[in-house]
Amino acid sequence: MRRKYLMILPMALLMTLFTGCSNVANEKQIKTDLEQYEETDVIKDDEKIEEIAIDKRQTDEDKKTDTVWCTITTQDSEMSYQKECVLTYNLDKQKKWTLADVDVNDSDEWVKEPLKGIDEEAISLSLNEETVNVDDTEWYIEESEIKKISIDKQDTDIEQKKDTVLVSLTLESPVQKAEGQLEISYHFEDEWEIDSLTEKKSFTAQDIEGTALNATEKSLTEELVQSEIKLDNDESNISIEKENISNFKIVNENTEDKGTFKTFECTATITKPTAVFQIEANICYLYSEEEGWTCQPVTIKSTLESLDIVGEWKGTYNGAPYSGEAVLNILSLDENGTITATYSYTPETTSDYSQPGSYNVSGKIDFETLHMDLEAGDWIVEPSKKLSVTKANIRANLYVNDSIIEGLGHEGNVFTLKR
């Protein structure tokens, strides 16, 4: 008899426990509560709950709380989401369990499964920062540049989480519209990600009406006139006038940065009284919606084709306290820049310390800088009073713009000469 009572007692205790917990929310009630609970984003507006599985539960009737750990599966029109949630219920005065709080794990931790293949909106998002070739130049795609996209063909394997689409695409920059066709392969891992991208129909561009750059030989020549030939010494850069330009040609045209940057590679002959240059010029234009097309600083690479400096260059020298006339007679110049010449000077007044003289000089001119280094040679006319002057090397520059030679002569006097 005693044994019988011992068996009945635990069973009664269990019945009491079950009765006390019988009103806690089950899966069906949790689903209803979540659908009506407005203070959580566990369910988006376009989602519905497909399944709820209770993983763990902790009920404390003394504290009047019921904590439920569960896995919730929701889905929208494109994919399903498996989310981990912790729900907290409180027991109210009517002995009813009421949902008080919902905590859901971060969205990047959700298990996501596709329900269908990728759509046009998702394709546009996936193409952001991808690159295609447009007329043999790279076009770095920004999503805002995709003006039209259509799926021509689609092969979706939901089980393998793979999709391949053939899409026609229209891109637009401020100045160009480009159209072509792509084959894109995707795999799904939380979202559709590109495996490969192939151009099935090459992209070609055309100018958007009202934005074309109408560059001609005449307009490019005018841009060249605003530029200079820069020599290596940075002291005697050579200006370019319209009458100096001949044999102007556009040899190549490049378009970059979605049509907003154009480069014209040009050649020309620049003829000055003392020098002829062959130049290669890059004339570049940049487009902005505020200013339209603006020419950028022109870059010029020059080659000295010929130099005409043989002859008599006359002028003055300035010394302290004596000044006078100076003459540099350049007798020869060869293809290596070797010069033979004579230098003579005649002071305005003569004295024991200021007498005329002349001597041979020879050396070279640097074709890159047009700087002359001429070493003093033998006297031609030696001053009668040897202390009146010291023979010196010639250090001078040819200034092509002004057709002058300036430098240092006898005793380091500064001279300026014209031919």
Question: How would you characterize the overall build of this protein?
Answer:
- The protein is mainly beta and about 425 residues long.
- The chain has 4 domains: about 25-115, Nuclear Transport Factor 2, Chain: A; about 120-205; about 215-305, no CATH class; about 310-419, Lipocalin.
- The protein is about 10% helix and about 55% strand.
- It contains 4 helices and 26 strands.
- The strands form 6 sheets. Strands 19-20-21-22-23-24-25-26 form an 8-stranded antiparallel β-barrel. Strands 1, 2, 3, 4 and 5 form a 5-stranded antiparallel β-sheet that branches. Strands 14, 15, 16, 17 and 18 form a 5-stranded antiparallel β-sheet that branches.
- The model is unreliable at about 1-20 (pLDDT under 50).
The rounded distance between the terminal residues' Cα atoms is 143 Å
Q: Return the average pLDDT rounded to an integer.
A: 91
Q: Report the CATH architecture of the largest domain.
A: Beta Barrel
Low-confidence stretches: 1-22
* Main β sheet profile: 8 strands, antiparallel, barrel
